[in-house]
């Protein structure tokens, strides 16, 4: 998997709940059509572990089969539409991409 990771915080005039609702609703609707998107995980950040980690609202991880598939998605009209949808929102964001390696596989909890 090759992932695009987005860490974001809301605009100062939005509540945390408004931002999460927008991200998982209205903004998700324009993101779903990205070509080659295999998986999208979104984490609502409810609390930072320390002061340096505070001030963020959510993290998205969008997964593609390869770097080439991500590059194709970033060059697509669907990506341009998602970026345009964010517009001049005024929140903060950080974006990275990289190759995923599973360090601990997903297992079912034991009762």
Automatic annotation (TrEMBL):
InterPro entries, alphabetized: Dimeric_a/b-barrel, EthD_dom
EthD domain: residues covered: 13-83
Gene3D superfamilies: 3.30.70.100
Domain of life: Bacteria
Gene Ontology MF: a single term: oxidoreductase activity
Signal sequence extent: none
Pfam families xrefs: EthD (PF07110)
Protein name: Ethyl tert-butyl ether degradation protein EthD
Organism this protein belongs to: Gordonia lacunae
């Amino acid at each position: 998997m090759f992932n695009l990771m987005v860490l974001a915080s809301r605009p100062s005039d939005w509540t945390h709940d408004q931002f999460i609702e927008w991200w998982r609703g209205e903004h998700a609707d324009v993101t779903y059509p990205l070509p080659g998107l295999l998986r999208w995980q979104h984490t609502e950040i409810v609390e930072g572990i320390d002061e340096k980690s505070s001030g963020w609202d959510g993290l998205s991880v969008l997964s593609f089969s390869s770097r080439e598939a991500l590059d194709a998605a970033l060059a697509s009209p669907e990506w341009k539409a998602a970026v345009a949808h964010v517009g001049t929102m005024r929140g903060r964001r950080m974006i990275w991409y990289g190759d995923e390696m599973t360090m601990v596989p997903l297992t079912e909890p034991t009762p």
